[in-house]
Amino acid sequence: MKKLAGAIAVILLWNACKFNSEKKTLPIYGNRTPITKVVNGQTTTDTIYQTIPAFKFIDQYGDSINNKNLDGKIYVADFFFTTCPSICPIMQRNMLDVYNTFKNTNDVKILSYTIDPKHDSVAVLKKYADKLGITGNSWWFLQGKKDDTYRLAEKNYLVAVKPDSTVAGGYIHQGYFVLIDKKSRIRGAYDGTKPDEVKQLIADIKTLKSEPDQPAVK
Potential cystine with 190: which of 129, 146, 168, 197 (Cβ 3.0-4.6 Å)? Predict the structure, then answer.
């Protein structure tokens, strides 16, 4: 994620330099694979971008949530646990700004994955969401198998998480809010503890919403 954050800084600076001459677009992050093919006798090269793979979790209402629920949606993902004594309360307060901005927008969702599923049952997640004032289905607090959650965080969302009995709360995790587009690609990562970066996230979601609609990745 340090490499991703560094790349974001460089690309955003480059985009800022050309902003006056063309409409802003967001970069695409993660691994990419060039695919060469011949169409009507012409050789062309397409780029296959890293995407968030299929997943299945349970939300705070006890409902099953999977990647198909996000077809055609922009969403923000983060990783937390309800007993976190350090950055999580700050992150969730800041995520409320995202929630309040887009809670009545059908094509924007928020996914908060717990990294402590043993403690964070459906009932615990529901109580946590209620305390934040979350209603409806625009912000899902998700519980799943621990190994699946950690693999998804580190391999796909590029966010580091791990148990650590030497720290308060028993876990170490990065506080990034990861922005995913309608084709399941990473379009940005923002420090969820910093209001200025969350403000930029909100602006970037609006930029994504203005992109021409494209079919979701199958």
Answer: 197
**Separation CA 89–CA 19 (nearest Å):** 35
- Contact (Cβ atoms closer than 8 angstroms) between residue 211 and residue 185: no
Tens digit of each residue's pLDDT (9 = 90 or more) over 46-93? 778 889 999 999 999 999 999 999 999 999 999 999 999 889 999 999
In this predicted model, what pLDDT tens digit does every residue of 103-121 receive, in sequence order? Answer: 999 999 999 999 999 999 9
Q: Where are the alpha helices (DSSP H) in the chain?
A: 2-18, 88-102, 122-132, 146-151, 195-209
| Structural fold of domain 53-209 | Glutaredoxin (3.40.30)
The CA distances from residue 54 to 64, 65, 92, in Å, are 13, 11, 25
In three state form, how does the secondary structure of 28-70 look? CECCEEEEEEEECCEEEEEEEECECCCCEEECCCCCEEEHHHH
Phi/psi at 198 (5° precision)? -70, -35
Cα 208 from chain centre:
13
Q: Does pLDDT of 6 surpass 70?
A: no
Q: Which residue has the higher pLDDT, 192 or 46?
A: 192
Q: For residue 44, which amino acid is it?
A: T
Task: Sketch the domain layout of the chain as residue ranges.
Answer: 53-209
Residues with Cβ within 8 Å of 165's Cβ and at least 6 positions away in sequence, in order, are none
